[in-house]
Amino acid sequence: MSPASNSTKTILVVDDDPLTLKSLQMILSGDGREVTTADNGMIAQDILLEHGLDYFECVLTDYRMPEFSGLDLLEWITSRDSSLSSIILTGEGEKDLVARALRGGAVDFMEKPFTIEEIRKAVEEAIELTRKNRVVESTVSDVKGISQLSKRLAPNRLLATGEIQSYQTRLTTRFLPIKETGGDFINVHPIDKHRMLLLAGDVSGHDLKAGFISAYFQGIVRGMVQHQPDITHICEYFNRFLINEWNLPDNPNETQIIRTSLAACLGLIDFENKTLEIFNHGLPLPWLHTQNGTVKKLGGAGPPLGWFDPLATKTTVYELEENAQLFFWSDGLEDYAEALQIQPLSLAYALLHEEDENKQNEIVANRKDDVIAIRLEWNKPDSTNEPNYLIYARTFPGNAHNEIDKQQESWRRHLQFTIPNLNPLKLDEILLCTREAALNAFKHGCQNSSEYNCQILFRVNNAHTRIEVIVSHDGQGIPQEELNRTELKEGNDGHISFGLIIIRSYASTLNYLNDGKTIKITFTT
Amino acid sequence: MTASKIQPNYDKRRAQLTLEFGDDLKSSNFEMLKEQIATLLDDSEQWDSEWDTLHLDLSKATLVDSIGLNLLVSIIRRVRERPAEVKATVANSTVYQTLLATRMDKVMELSYIAPQRAQ
Known about the structure:
Chain A has helices spanning about 20-30, 40-50, 70-80, 95-100, 115-150, 210-225, 230-245, 330-340, 345-355, 355-365, 405-420, 425-445, 480-485, 500-505; strands at about 10-15, 35-40, 60, 85-90, 105-110, 170-175, 185-190, 195-205, 260-270, 275-280, 285-290, 295, 315-320, 325-330, 370-380, 390-395, 455-460, 465-475, 510-515, 520-525. By secondary structure, chain A is of the alpha+beta class. In chain B, a hairpin with a 4-residue loop joins strand 1 and strand 2 (about 15-20).
């Protein structure tokens, strides 16, 4: 319930002395003030509950009252509505005592005796404070409301299974903002039975202005994409809007400033024509991971929208590979991963795997920016294999064998972060086998030359019961008879090749692909 | 990286020379360990002492990779020429499993002590 009107000021006066009560009522009545009285704290409570605390704009109460003191009443009020200002009337010398007892709340003190002007002034100030507090509360409530509404646009519910024909799709998203409202967003728009648009963005700032631009852009994309899903065209349009309208200086004589910019990454996936179109201006590069073990960073990155007209880059179109996973994440996630000394991919995996929102927040507890992670998976319906999820991917120059200890420590860090419950003995075995496979790739495949590269991937199934290590290089392959050898053999340099023997002893399965240039080691836990 | 030192300890009563490895046996410290071993075994005082067992104390090693195994092989070959027996003590489960998987237990006496009992 609200006060009778904007101008009516409702005051509750509480005092067990009838004469003081009557006097205060007379002093404060009039000039648009409505005064309600109570001769003890219990009755005051009943009145406040009956009308609602938000009906009143000031409570003026005596400190010394039997049974339920003014102090008790104010503590009760503060615990229910901290925006309602109160004044407590104390005897001479009691003010400090009461102040110490009352912690917090919008409370003023007046020592008896006081003049009529002093009490009127104090009440006016208390009413002003209550009104200000309530405006702030209302704004905070509105902001929270906007935040809740924006969650309705969260893409999980937009992408029900079956909307895309001929593929099984699964979308997992995490949006962990640092404030109730801001400019980061995730959208997914199914366009028709064969196409969908994946959209992630970050408007500069974390205020209502950023929230407004964010919502405006999302609305424009949603409207335009239904009629003409040309993502370059959409982004060029919004880029011009930011430069020519939103960021125009208030005074034409002033230099134009970049008041607001928008980093956005859009992915248009066409399952019928098997194309993946990426447009990225300002967000980290999206990653694509296929079940057969390829990993790509997609597209080129231009500056955010709102900086330059025309836009420097266009979309990049890729052939859509089957049984794959597409990742988007925000620069907030990249920054946090850097602080943790892990790959953004690994942090994205940990967040996407964790379903409990509180635990997701714990993972990025000290973030300084909004964190977004998106993974879209698509698989052919006849694909019976359980998907593998990429948790680490790095390419090393072929002569990086000298840094193998540092690499191994990094692998340990990534595996412990992404699979926290991994048995320490199993972890040691995986690390040893990865080391052996990498040493083999550096020495024999890449011949310790920087002309070649060695890539190492870690993948895991959803239940964390199967871990895959894939080590591949673009150097020389290994002859089949060498791969099949089970006996120890001494090489020309006098060294015995123990590597594959060690790997075989720990791995559940071992596969060679691509003429032995790729070795896939599987562990079960 | 700090150099991992191999500490020799001659026990005349048991006719045993112990080499205590302070670190892992791996590709990144192979050359350094190889040089240390050569220096120790080429030292006439060590080599000429009366011992018939070489004890490799690997209880501080948490990693022995394929290159580290080659170091062990070279030590065993050298000591067999003496002739003398080689035995090794390990305290890490993965190191122990690796030595078994590569059949190193066939060419030296291998003991595994639980980590809490390792010196």
